[in-house]
Amino acid sequence: MFTAEIYSKRREELRRRVGQGLILLPGNVESPLNYPNNAYHFRQDSTFLYYFGHNVPLLVATIDADTGEEVLYGDDFTVDDIIWMGPQATIRELAAEVGVANAKPMAALAVDIQKAIALGRDVHYLPPYRGETKLMLSDLLGITPSMLHARKSLDLLFAVAEMREKKGPEEIAALEEAFEIGYQMHTAAMRATRVGRSEHEVAGIVDGKAFTYGTGPSFTTILSQHGEVLHNHNHSGIMESGRLLLCDCGGEHVNGYVSDHTRTFPVNGKFTQKQKDIYNIVLKAHDDAAAALRPGMMYMEYSDVAQRTLLEGLKALDLVRGSVEDAMAAGAGFLFMPHGLGHGMGLDVHDCENIGERSFSFADIIDRAKASACCITRQYWRLMPGTVLSDEPGIYFVPALIDKYRSEGKLKGIVNYDKLDEYRDFGGIRLEDDLVVTETGSHTLGDKIIPIAVEDVEAMVGQE
Length: 464
Hints:
The chain has helices at 4-18, 46-52, 79-85, 91-97, 107-118, 131-141, 154-165, 169-192, 199-213, 273-292, 299-316, 324-329, 333-336, 366-372, 399-407, 417-420, 454-460, and strands at 22-26, 32-35, 38-39, 60-64, 70-73, 102-104, 123-124, 222-224, 244-249, 261-266, 297-298, 382-383, 388-391, 394-396, 428-430, 433-437, 442-444. It is α+β, with helices and mostly antiparallel strands.
């Protein structure tokens, strides 16, 4: 946790931005794995964590934007709870740790919310993403779960996104420490990789490092020889000579801040010339994007830098023909990289995605999204000092997508489909690091480099 002063200042700024009404911020509850007492590893709601700091289940908080009153709701542990969980801080003690003067039992929450509704006050909440939270909000507000999305608070949504995007020095420090966890995970993956070993075994080593150096993985580890499958959580393969292993993983710092990196490396420790050619195109796109990033730049400009480099490299291999500008205009890049160049980073590995464009459409609030220009709508995202984002270009040869484009006549004359047939079993390559936008440009998180140059990668693979 950070100091109480940091959380108090965040809440005061949120109150100022929202302006009026009652701000309702529910924390997460335990989620059962297969029966109530066997729960998934607990992770607090990131927005609750940002303003109230506690990674503890069964807490809810309110901020009165009119009066400034702040309340933390929860129930103290009983003796029966203590038998199983040990002594725990009281709700009042938890509140005091983050500078909140008022603590109340959970039963008081419904009374206070109903009082606000009876007075005709606005109750501001974010669109919930967990079923338990949806049911709780539905009960508190007296509306059906299907009505929750329509009644979400846009004032709260944009205030939270704009605040969370601009990272303070304490957040950058936590992200730097999260990088160290990621460094240990990725270098362990490289060292443990060898012909004949199962992907599952290496994935286990990777996740073990996340728990050794932090609180666990920041997302489900992606580790596979089928790198063309973007989010491949299947680790059932046995590593084969001549194939590439893609590892996309990250760790979570004790304060909740996360890392997210990707490396792709040869199972036998040596790239073939064909693999090296594609790898170096992706590496150049990765480096070019980082070098071009500057404050005030639009995300789409940043993305275009990498897209142009990728298409230039593919043209040099005769996989793309004609001018690179024509290929970009035709959307040829999507065939080889069917994802964006990057995403926000912070308390979430895709920062604020629960209130962003991937969770619901922003079509009816485009003007507000443009004015906000934060990471929840990448089309309108302006990269400013304090923003942290990923830089993750890739080239993937997805047979199903290639066949679809070819059969539909897409990119005819731009993509050399005959030459592309030689890459159908290639897989995919992605390289990813995390960048901080500064007043003059950007810098990569971390005090060292996860091996990325060809010779450095080859020197580490299999050296367990």
